[in-house]
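Notes, Module 5: Reading structure tokens.

Key idea: the token line is not a picture. It is a compressed description, and you learn to read it the same way you learned to read a sequence, by spotting repeated patterns. We will look at two proteins. The first is printed below with its tokens.
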Amino acid sequence: MNSRPRVVLGIAGGSGSGKSWLAREVAAAFPGRAAIVCHDWYYKDNGRLDGEASKKLNFDHPAALETPLMGRHLDLLTAGEAVDAPVYDYATHTRLQETRRVEPTPLLILDGILILHEKPLRARMNLSVFIEVPDDIRLARRVRRDTMERRVDLDETLRLYEEFVRPMHLRYVVPSSHHATWIWSQLDDKRFPELLIRDLKRRLDEKDEAVAA
């Protein structure tokens, strides 16, 4: 069994801000010692809805996610137990039968637009980053991601942005930035990922030394 998490890092920000990129960069700096858990994995299953009903789904509202299940999984990981996290299909709005295995590691990275909005998730973090990126840049990135990775066409991506993404960003995501340990202005500070990784290494080393003592 791997080590129990000693540092839990949350990475938040608007859709298209680069949360997943930063999570992967950080995890890559700690091979075998870091795991990522995404809030997006915990979208509720909506596969039974017809076409018209599915268009009313607001994926950027806190109610769209099964956050209590994520919280239970984080507690298991913190206790040193592996979990089988859900897999969500964005094209069909379905939670698939298959799961993804997540093992406990010294560094646990949480990724999601609403993780700093959710108090139960904040309570499980030691540190957190909120990524600030201009709206037009985030929208362009979302269009590329949705069309290339999630099989969502351009018209649907723009509709979702206008009806749900932008208003929910202003209502929930932006205010949650006040809970972050660091606010990273991504376009202005290119060195932040390097400095974050350096800080995390120091913290993990200190905790390793404390455990060894």
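Here is the second protein, with the sequence above and the tokens below, as before.
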Amino acid sequence: MPESVKGEKMSIIQHLVELRNTLLHSVLAITIFFVALFPFADQIYTFIAEPIVAAIPGSNLIAIGVISPFLTPLKMALILAVYLAMPFLLFKIWAFVAPALYKHEKRLILPLVISSTILFYTGILFSFYIVFPVIFGFLSTVGPSVVNFTPDIQYYLDFVIKVSFAFGVAFEVPIATILLIMFGVTTPEKLKKNRAYIVVGAFVLGMLLTPPDIISQTLIAIPILLLFEAGLFFAPFFKVRKAKSENDREGSGPATVDWSDESHNAKMDKIEAEMNERGKNK
């Protein structure tokens, strides 16, 4: 977690160094998980393919690309490595923004990381065990009878990644709602007043993130709405940031960024003072 002294300004170089360290640590964590999963890439893909294989009994997926049977399982292992490293990635993100938070807000980092991780994994499990069987069961029964439903392994993987990640992010709605209210961007009253727009937005988001069918659109819109209501319920338990708090007046507020060089500012002030002195003499 970036360290900062109370009231001390952090230069842009310090922020860039922290960003570099955050990215390097994140890449290292993903690499470690990928190396551990690499020997089991084929077994992982076989497990991920179970929902669609169950929907087309007696048939298997096909590989159109020449190297798809080799690269596709590796890609699945890499994506799974990112998912497994998600708790660490979320912690590094929260740690990076910690200097901009007040002391009481920093105490929320660990609870938010834990809740964000649980919600993300819940969204992925919900998509894998509930949404995929419904979608693939529906898709396998539609279309002309002369067409065999045998998806390509690469297209199937892209579909699974897109939908599972969409559900993982969609399940973060309570966290997003709480943060928007906590940082004063909006209020529970405003959100309740505009609930009708949020309902429409949830279905539009479901349409954009899922295949063009009403079933998957509804399966993602309903959880979003329920989780939004959960965020509204828990938001009052969090302290809302004020424009000017006691902590800020006492110098214990968030660290600010000093985007200019102090020596350069001192020189400019000296030049300006000299120019003013010359103007007075004239």
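Summary for the second protein:
- The two ends are 55 Å apart (CA to CA).
- DSSP finds 14 helices and two strands in the chain.
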